[in-house]
Amino acid sequence: MSSQSPPDRDEYPYPRIRRISQACLNCRSGASPQALFQCPTLTYKSLGGRRPSAQDQLATRISAFEGKLDELLSTMNKFLPMFQNQRGTTSVLSTEGTHPNSVPYPFSSSHIKTPSASYQAISNVGGSLIELPPGQVASSLIDLYFSRVHNQPYSFFHEQSFRQRYANGLVPEYLIFAMLASSLRFSTDAFYQTKQQDIIMAYASRSWSYIVQEWFATESDPDLQICQAITLLSIIDFTAGRRHPGWMKIGLCIRIAQELGLMLEPDSSLSISDREERRRVFWSIYTLDKLCSCGRARPSAILDAQCQVQLPGHEIDFRNGISKKTQTLKQAFSTVDTQDERPSHLALVVLVASIIGKCAQHMIHDHGRTEGCLPPWDSKSDFAMIHSTLLQLETQFEIGNNIEEAVSVQECCETGVYDMQIVGPTIFAYALFYTSQCLLHHPFLLYQQSKSRGAKPPASFLSRALQSGRENAYLMSKLLVDAEAMGCSVVYSFFGYCTTVCASIHTMYLNHQNIECHEQARQCLTSQRAFLEQYAMVWSNGKNMIGILDKLVSQPSLILAVVVATPRFELLDREQVVDLWAAVDYTTMSQEAMRSAASRASMDVLSPVNWDSVFGANGNTNTIGGDSMQGSSADGAQGGRLTVYNGAMPPGMSPFSTFFNDAGLNFGA
């Protein structure tokens, strides 16, 4: 080692540090350090034992800084094509957006090191997709949101207040991106060309990234706008087949709503529009929670007893800033506490959503529960209570009449065109009502109820139940036809489920010996399948629903097993039961279609039936030829299959990692 003495105190301004009694663990070898020049903890190893001067330290830091810049430049060049804009510019970062509210894309280390699959998927489209579009395009999408999404059936904003805040640049980017992603599917703007689905994914991913950065990272308190954005994103995820991140986002927005106290009456110090907006946000989340509970292993998270806030008021009053007291959920279902004024269109949606949640809980979630459960034909059973509530709604609010008679021309059609913010919720409430009846009287679900309780249903009960299910399935078909005749576009996200459930009942009557039943089923199924084809052009899960119906249509043996006076359910084989479950399970419908037959084995795990005890070890398979309405599968392949939810996580996929890292955009692909 050098014998050079340390510099004087004037040359080396820092106080001397006393040597520790032992060398570091990396250098220790016996009583004294031996690997001095390899020790990473000594800063003067390359200086022959001399402490570095201030100039040496500065030079070292500059050298390290230049090295980091070189690494950053190299990394940015690797991802340059991903962020180039559509005009062909080669700049990576934009100094200013094309919209007053746009912001440059932040190059955080997380995006550089681990780009998500969603960004890779859209890298060929252009970097402008992850920025706000030009002002005129963004404004047109905002207009489209309020004409095609708002109040249909979810109501998150007071339109006038939102537009004012948007014009003043007070709406956060994550909420704007969520709204654009929600309305883009209805757009025909040439700005997006043919990459519409990729852009929806990009906007949704961008919104979620902002939320993670601005809320999760800073651990700040949530607000109403966070709740609105996450709820919109959950709908996008769930309907696109990303059921795991979508389901967790639904749970997150429920907890945020509870944290904000939205289930309680808002503070009277708030303005009339702000109070009503908070009520509508909560009831929209409540409705979403109940609708998504129509899938197995997806129970509702909001209890009716916790909902103490008033039901939504009338839309015209909301627009004009008029405050009127409305009933609570408990009061609306009470047979004692009645109100003369008819509830608003949105309030009717909430009431029927509450009932469909009860139907799903009883017919889908509790079908195998036997302890303390009475058979459906018992007057004290849950089945009887739900049916009684449906009859109460039908009587009290005249649900079931012709839809044109149900809407007020003075309120909904002042300019000669129906106001879908008012008419839309009414049509949606009717669809939920018919779907609730179909779930409650679905032949397959009734069989599951009877089988789990080990009791054979009375012939009179079964006859009335089958008749009620068929009538309401027909009314759902008629509703779609009448709405189209009125010029109303009703391609709502949950309408696909309503249509599929009702159409599955029609498939059971295609080969009925009664000519009238057969012909009615054929006509209804034709119109409902045509609707699903239009629906699939807007919502990704529509292809799954078409595939499910096509599979049921190709099985004429269902008539012998399900909808006869003495059903012979033992004729159903394993796959037929899986197909019937798929027709009533929103979880199965809302997933990406299966891409290969290799994962077909996972379908058998789900079925709630104990196959060995019902059919024996080998089951019972019927091979029946003939097919009057043979169709193709959802992905265009004959006989295509869907993976039915089995409660198990696919290998290598964690919903929690995809939930926060945007990989959920391709979940299950």
Automatic annotation (TrEMBL):
It comes from Phialocephala subalpina. It comes from the Eukaryota. This is Xylanolytic transcriptional activator regulatory domain-containing protein. The lineage of its organism: Eukaryota, Fungi, Dikarya, Ascomycota, Pezizomycotina. GO terms for molecular function: DNA binding; DNA-binding transcription factor activity, RNA polymerase II-specific; zinc ion binding. GO terms for cellular component: nucleus. Residues 246-318 form the Xylanolytic transcriptional activator regulatory domain. One of its GO terms (biological process) is DNA-templated transcription. Its main location: nucleus. It is found in: Nucleus.
